[in-house]
Amino acid sequence: MSEKKRKTLRWINKHKKELCAAGVCISTLILLVLCYKHQNSIKALLKSLQKIVNKPSAHTSLTLPDGRVEINPAQMDELSDAVMSELETRLIEVGLHPRRLPKGQHASQMKILEAEKLGIDLMGEYTIVDPYKKRIAAA
Length: 139
Description:
This protein has a two-stranded antiparallel sheet with strand order 1-2. A two-stranded antiparallel sheet has the order 3-6. The chain is an alpha+beta fold. It has helices spanning 3-14, 16-37, 39-54, 73-86, 109-118; strands spanning 62-63, 69-70, 89-94, 97-100, 126-129, 132-137. The protein has a domain at 89-139. The chain is built from five helices and six strands, in the order αααββαββαββ.
């Protein structure tokens, strides 16, 4: 090992507590900046979760003796929809596009014919994905 590497390793060993503290401080600072930047989305998410937890329904959640709340699986879709509706999201359309398939898989005969009609060469390892709509977080 070169002398330069040894010096660097000695310096790191000597200052490891300071390096760890700096890492924690930087991580905390990044978290605070992100929370501040997205505070409206976080508030909306917490507000929608509070509404759902306080809302009585036929599929009531179960509060366990240790204070944990167990949500009935039937509520999960309702919870997900409510959270998504409260967040700032938008619906985008994703157009027809090629997608690389995992090794050993091939496009279906129907997709190969569809690609030929559109003048797309799938090159054996691709298929085409039909257009679809996707919900994404608003910027």
